[in-house]
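Feature request, filed as a ticket because there's no other form

It would be nice if the structure record came with a short human-readable summary line next to the tokens. Right now we just get the raw output. Example of a typical job, pasted below so the devs can see what we mean:
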Amino acid sequence: MVLRDPGSTSPLRIWLDSRNTGRPGGTGVATYTTGMRQCFTQLGGDVPYLWDRAPDASAPPPNTPARKVLRFMHALLPFPTRVRRRQRPDTGERCWFVPDLFRLANVHFRIWKRPLRLCGGQPPAIMYSTYPLPFLVDDAINVVTIHDLIPLTHPELTGIDRTFMEKLLRQQVALADVVVTVSETVRQQIVDMFHVPADRIFNLYQPVSITDAERRAMEATPAIAPAGCFLFIGRVEARKNIERLVAAHALSGTARPLVIMGPDGDDQPDFTPRTPRQQIIRIPWCSRESLLRTLRDAHALLFPSLAEGFGLPIIEAMALGVPVLTSRGGATGEIAGDAALLVDPLDTGDITQGIAALDRMTADTAQWQQMVARGHSQAERFSPAAQIERMTPFLAHLARLSATGR
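Raw output as currently delivered:
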């Protein structure tokens, strides 16, 4: 399938929001955004970002008191906000933007209880929101991605306001033309909670790839953690089950250090060593190359999360030939398939046994080699090529919407 505007040979224009791109250290949503852009581009689409700043500005406006007042006054306006168009001064690339868009849209939604409408700027055929953002583009097919329902299903595990998020998600699934998600687990939760018709929701999973350039950069990057360590990657917060993980690591009796890599989350779980012998190494941030180098050199990834929408580190570890321990059931069990050691995330003893079993494995054992082989096979299910094939029914649905004017 080649993405073309109906009745013409021009590439189909698809806007992606820039909300999660360009952040230090990256996020799972940022990786999803980049991967989807690559897939749409490979299919022949014209895929620019919709920015919250002019192309000659390096960052959104600072969140000063004066800016907050201006944002509130703008949000009070009942009519649509116009999208602006400008060329980048360095490359001449076309850019579309709304100053302070993402903060403005949130304030507008809190005031009016409905999404901010955007107009003008030569609207795209498709506005593909990679996150539930409270705006819609007039005269475009609006697609919204819902990665998880954790603020609703596990409100105790997140600092996100459950009431606000439920209102936002109900509006999004009611007003968006198409809803996309990243696992069958979350898809079923959305259907059950919001009663979305089956023909309006698609599980596309997430494209995951480690490029040749990233692999070369990884090889040239100095190590920042001991080889052969146990590694956790993700936000350091209660949802990631950090305290049980640290306790299980201590109880396992392993001499391998536990490296906890990722930014601080909504809360501050206790990851101090539980015994004098236990070694915990905290790395709050590093480059993408250093993250991949550390993951490649690890003995295993430990990811017994309590709630996920997808679980990106699981597939990245498998792609690098690293065994994985993760949670049984939910999205993590779905994404890992039969290629990981699955444990009960609420049972410290079960996590302990899993860590001890991995600790005893070596690269020359049949069990290790089997885990690595299954991991490579599972990772291939989320390659860009597999993602493009998986997108075929979704793209056909968009084509039908476009042909009928929705």
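Something like this underneath would help us a lot:
The chain has a mean pLDDT of 92.
DSSP finds 15 helices and 17 strands in the chain.
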